[in-house]
Amino acid sequence: MNRFIRIFTLLLLLFNSFGALYGSYHFITDPSGESLQMPRSFLQHSPFSNYLIPGIVLFLVNGLFCFMVTAALLLKHRLAPTLVMLQGILLAGWIVMQVMLLQTFYPPLHLTMFGIGGMLIGCGGYLAKLK
After folding, report:
1. 3-state secondary structure of 2
2. Are 91 and 62 a contacting pair, CB within 8 Å?
3. Count of C-beta atoms within a 10 Å radius of residue 68
4. Mapping DSSP to helix (H, G, I), strand (E, B) and coil, where does residue 124 land?
5. What residues make up the domain containing 15?
6. 63-67, Cβ contacts within 8 angstroms, sequence gap of 24 or more
7. Dist CA 31 CA 38 (whole Å)
8. How many alpha carbons lie under 13 Å from residue 35 in its C-beta half-sphere?
9. CA–CA separation, 18 and 24 (whole Å)
10. Rounded distance, CA 116 to CA 130, Å?
């Protein structure tokens, strides 16, 4: 079971990080959002005029940091379970902020990613109890 949870956690982390890197690459290289078919009108209730800053934050928080958490888990670092929980909190928080700022709720994406955040919190908690 312990091995299953570690592998499952790694898969969740990789799914999140690759998705974040894909999205952030497009937002940073094309801040208009056109390359992802994201109209600027989505940003009308947010403090942003384009997707550059959200893309940079996405890259750092759910892309780069998530890869660092993955490395910590693979290396069995003592803080890995805590970092997994933190990544879950950051991902869930990202989704909540996204829905609030955009005032748009897209259930397939938002529920899936919020659920992954919750699963990361749970997996990190489970891994922490093993120590």
Report:
1. helix
2. yes
3. 15
4. helix
5. 2-130
6. 63/17, 63/20, 63/21, 63/24, 65/90, 66/13, 66/16, 66/17, 66/20, 67/17
7. 10
8. 15
9. 10
10. 21
Determine the average pLDDT of the residues in 24-29. Answer: 98
How many structural domains does the chain have?
A: 1
Supply the DSSP string of 78-118, one letter for each residue. Answer: TTHHHHHHHHHHHHHHHHHHHHHHHT---HHHHHHHHHHHH
For 41-95, write each residue's pLDDT tens digit: 999 999 999 999 999 999 999 999 999 999 999 999 999 999 999 999 999 999 9
Tokens of 67: 């890869």
Which residue type, as a one-letter code, is found at position 78? R
Which of 18, 34, 29, 20 is closest to 52 using CA atoms?
A: 29
The answer to whether the beta carbons of residues 36 and 17 sit under 8 Å apart is no
Q: Work out the angle at residue 116's Cα, subtended by the Cα atoms of residues 20 and 109, and round it to the nearest 5 degrees.
A: 65
Residue 76 to residues 44, 72, 119: CA-CA distances in angstroms? Answer: 43, 6, 19
d(CA 86, CA 34): 31
